[in-house]
What does this fold into?
Amino acid sequence: MAGSGAGASPLIVWNEREKRFETEDKKAFIEYQLRKGGKVMDIVHTFVPSSKRGQGLASLLCVSAFNHAKNHSMAVIPTCSYVSDTFLPRNPSWNLVLHMEDLKSCI
Ligand code: COA
It folds into this structure.
């Protein structure tokens, strides 16, 4: 059963208008820009309020964004340093969804 009891994962909502995936209270979010006619999701920023950091909330936001990209056949550019330096090294299977042209220019 969905709910907000102790230990339940917070629900992440897609806010298409603001190009974000966010918690229901909108306080934590991952923000993207669309590139190449909407075929590429450039993740530009992740934010979690200081009181909620270190519990994997940013990682949960990333999973929502990467799942969305995968399900919509979009490639991801990990501009945000949390995504490139923390999320992807810890979850390398998502490297498959990355935009290869930009990957080369990052190395
Ligand atoms: N870049 C890369 N990794 C970062 C980071 C950053 N700017 N800030 C924190 N991290 C790492 C920490 O090293 C931490 O590692 P630990 O698990 O070994 O302690 C890890 O993120 C925590 O992961 P998680 O719990 O999933 O993240 P979070 O919910 O605490 O949120 C941020 C992480 C970065 C979104 C949050 O600290 C924040 O909003 N910071 C201010 C905005 C910011 O710097 N955004 C990233 C650049 S766009």
Q: What stands out?
A: Residues 57-71 form the longest helix (15 residues). Confidence is low (pLDDT under 50) at residues 1-5. The beta strands are 12-15, 20-23, 29-35, 40-47, 75-77. Residues 12-106 form a domain with the Aminopeptidase fold (CATH 3.40.630.30).
